[in-house]
Design brief:
The protein is mainly alpha-helical. The chain contains 7 helices and 2 strands; from the N terminus they run ββααααααα. The longest helix is centred in the middle third of the chain and has 29 residues.
Amino acid sequence: MTTQVTSPEGSDDPGISSGGPNTSGHRRIGPPPFLILALGSIGVVYGDIGTSPLYALREAVKAALLKDGAISEPAILGVLSLMIWALILVVTVKYVLVLLNADNNGEGGTLSLMALAQRGRGKFLLSIPLLGILGAALFYGDAIITPAISVLSAVEGLNLITPAFEPFVLPLTLFIIVGLFLVQSQGTGRVAAFFGPITLVWFLAIAAVGLVHIFDH
């Protein structure tokens, strides 16, 4: 939220100018737009990446269980190593180092990069649309499956409190997913304003817990 301060007539404040681009004599006071966009991107973009380890870790540990239900320390370390390297390769290398430097006049995304690649010349030019369609299909598949798995995994945590919640897991999951998509239909800005701060608190919480256990060992 920003507020406006009206400059009184004859003010000598150098920060408030009656001339120049801002002829209305108003000065904006509030968070810089970049910080607001960054906070919103935490909820919209990085919320998926930040919550995926919730169910990925659980399912990976289940797969590493021995026949007697026990799990060895090397198996746990192996699962954690796979997850850490996946985050490093996908987020840092793929997104930050590659995709952020490959944009189509500031626009990103599968179809935008496909249009950028079609400007080149080569024998593989005809295969670019097929790769773009395949990439879009994978994106839509991920966009449909990931929210369902994430919400279902979170709601299933209620069973740890009491098994009496088990009949309500699926109905509650459907209610949350439908509600989220109804809100998102009004625009991504609403989702960013709501989930950005929540995701930021989540990241700070897991970072604090992780640091505590790192210092313990």
